[in-house]
Amino acid sequence: MAGTYEPKVLVLCCGWCADAAADLAGVARLPMQPNFTLVKMECTSRVEPEFILEALRLGADGVLIAGCHPGDCHYVGGNYRALRRFALLRTMLQQFGVDPRRLRLEWILATEGPKFQQKINSFVETVRGLGPSPFRAE
Ligand code: FES
What we know:
By secondary structure, the chain is α/β, with parallel strands linked by helices.
């Protein structure tokens, strides 16, 4: 339905960094698009490809993965693993006819509340511009 579409975004946050940045942004009352649901993960390396595909299948229009900066992962190379999976997933999405811009990966420190805010708002606007996911049942 044109004009009534509101994107649904899933945010998968590393609990060591981006989740704390989300808290910081919330405590500071930084204005953010309300179109996201946040799930705290132990590390971005925990994000399996099927989580993304299942989120899209269940109605998410986009998925943002947010983790520790390169070199800062608590599990040493977890975020590098996530980066490799991210690249593969974007290719896979394209092959399924899904715009790869529906998936984004960001590095956000625990102290970067304003960056979390900016990345959320920017991603929601990108997904809004893409329209509903082709997997959406509505
Ligand atoms: Fe944060 Fe690995 S612990 S990305």
